[in-house]
Design a protein that fits this description.
By secondary structure, the protein is of the alpha+beta class. The protein is about 55% helix and about 10% strand. It is built from 8 helices and 4 strands. It has a 4-stranded mixed β-sheet. β3 and β4 form a beta hairpin. The protein is globular, with a radius of gyration of 16 Å. The N and C termini lie far apart (about 40 Å).
């Protein structure tokens, strides 16, 4: 078993570890993923999240002991100690960092966790297709967020990161 997988297994058992700052490796070329990372970025008032676009030119997956193919299969989170979490667990930790952990808490319930993991795996492998289907909604949401940020900045309350 690889050293990274062993770290992952140890980390999943120890829920008392310091999870933040959590580095998120995500696919910004996916419109839906990019929209959700923008949402988390806006809500991360305590700066607990670091966002890294794995689809950016020059991104080096080996820096994290992973391949680009592995990273593009699912969102990855890198904890301060270097341990790696993926998929649903990463999403839950990111939402907790943004003060929205209550939205994803059910994902960790013993009966729901396997279902959520299965759904996530299928979503992740089809995320570009799902983004194409939801393109109009994604554009509308992004436009509303941009308008809201513009209004906030004009009123002197700009907090855009």
């Amino acid at each position: 078993m690889s050293e990274i997988k062993i770290k992952l297994l140890k980390t999943q058992k120890n829920i008392h570890m310091n999870d933040y700052p959590l580095t998120l490796l995500y696919d910004a070329s996916c419109p839906l993923c990019n929209l959700e990372m923008a949402n988390l970025r806006e809500r991360d008032h305590l700066n607990r999240l670091i966002f890294i676009d794995a689809s950016a030119p020059g991104f080096d997956a080996s820096k994290y002991g992973l391949t680009l193919r592995e990273i593009m299969r699912a969102i990855h989170g890198i904890r301060p100690d270097g341990s790696i979490v993926t998929g649903v667990e990463t999403i839950h930790l990111a939402y907790k960092a943004a003060g929205l952990g209550w939205l994803t808490a059910a994902m960790n319930l013993p009966l729901l966790k396997p279902v959520c993991n299965w759904v996530y795996r299928h979503f992740a492998s089809n995320r570009h297709h799902v983004s194409a289907i939801l393109a109009d909604a994604i554009i509308r949401i992004a436009a509303k967020r941009a308008e809201k940020r513009t209004r906030a900045c004009k009123s002197g309350q700009c907090t855009f990161k």
